[in-house]
Input
Amino acid sequence: MIWNQNKECMSTDEMRALQGRRLHKIVKYVYHNVPFYRNKLQEMDVTPDDIRSIEDIHKLPFTTKQDLRDNYPFGLQAAPKSEVIRVHASSGTTGNPTIVGYTRKDIEVWSECMTRCLTAYGVSRDDIFSVAYGYGLFTGGLGAHYGVENLGAAVVPTSTGNTEKHVRLIRDLGITGIACTPSYALYLAETMDHMGISKNDIRLRVGAFGAEPWTESMRTEIESRLGLKGFNLYGLSEIMGPCVSYECQEQHGSHICEDHFFPEIIDPETLQPLPYGEVGELVFTTLTKEGMPLLRYRTKDLCSLMNDPCPCGRTSVRMGRILGRSDDMLIIRGINVFPSQVESVVLSMPEFAPRYLLVIDRVNNLDTLQVQVEVRQEYFTEQFDTLGALGTLEKRLANKLKSVLSISAKVQLKAPGTIERSQGKSKFVLDKRQLK
Ligand code: ADP
Ligand code: ZN
Output
């Protein structure tokens, strides 16, 4: 099913024309309402009348998270205070939170886009849907919530916390859909195991997972343990919240709501646009936002864009998986290391659970990398008494890591369930170097 046939399946020419008209309007709007943008545009000698088509976007300045912080809290707000009906903040994964105000129309657009996502996942009015993203300043909870209501399915606002109660609700109410972080989905599966509840006792069939990077192997794991089909849901508070892009049944990239959020991929070093298919930093321009519209916002998320036709019938540009954040990149002994590289190695070995932590430190001016990883329960019990089995496993992992990362890491195997669980976004890195 497609929620908004008109917008989701618009011909590319029509879409570019619509985007061009909207871009002109939004540039005019920020020029007159946000001194920060007026100054930037004047410095670059650009007026709103210079922006006539979507190709003109290259004439516009970029916006960074630092710009948002410098203008904390409401400096980039375009709508008058009386028009703002809700305020959220980004979760501050990489620093101080940034504040975003939404007008009534922004909330409507958000709900509309979120409903497009849910419909693409196969959710309908007949579903009972649990929103297990945190409710509060974080956009996940309320963002997903309003989408479910707008669709007309029944929303169960479980939020995070009390996971056993949540599992009982899933079973007792016959909950069929869930939105949460992929790591929380795994935590839910573990809690079910402890409670002796199997996937055959519940009716979950659709999962909307996002807010943090995840991999195909995590998808397989979650799907087999919870008995559902898991879909990607992407978004960020600066641009809106969850709803910016979503997977369809083809699960080959995530369709972007590009009538509202115009995507570009740039080289994070040279800031030059990159062609479809190449990995770089994802940049969004909000085309219709009233509260805090942003021009060419640098997300720091690394991925590629695709524009080949999708068999589902939607014509929108799709984005590939987020491969990391450009500021996620660790430099260890001068070598670039992404946590996702470690994850892919860990998950390629069946002995390990998808639970790991990178601990980086500096000893005698030399960076050290330790990778802690949980051994799966089955393997742990079976091999625990076998002399040397765990030691051999440790060595195998260390060798694989070395060949992928090009630096050596000290491996520490952990007993099942001993790496700290998070109910929101997981922490995969502990960089002790910054603490000194
Ligand atoms: P913060 O930047 O403080 O974490 P947000 O709560 O707005 O702020 O989170 C947005 C970020 O979360 C995105 O920029 C992206 O890095 C990550 N994210 C959101 N959804 C996904 C997803 N489906 N896959 C990978 N990463 C995601
Ligand atoms: Zn599709």
Summary: The chain has two domains: 1-327, 330-435. The chain has a mean pLDDT of 93. The longest strand covers residues 352-363. The CA atoms of residues 271 and 281 lie 9 Å apart.
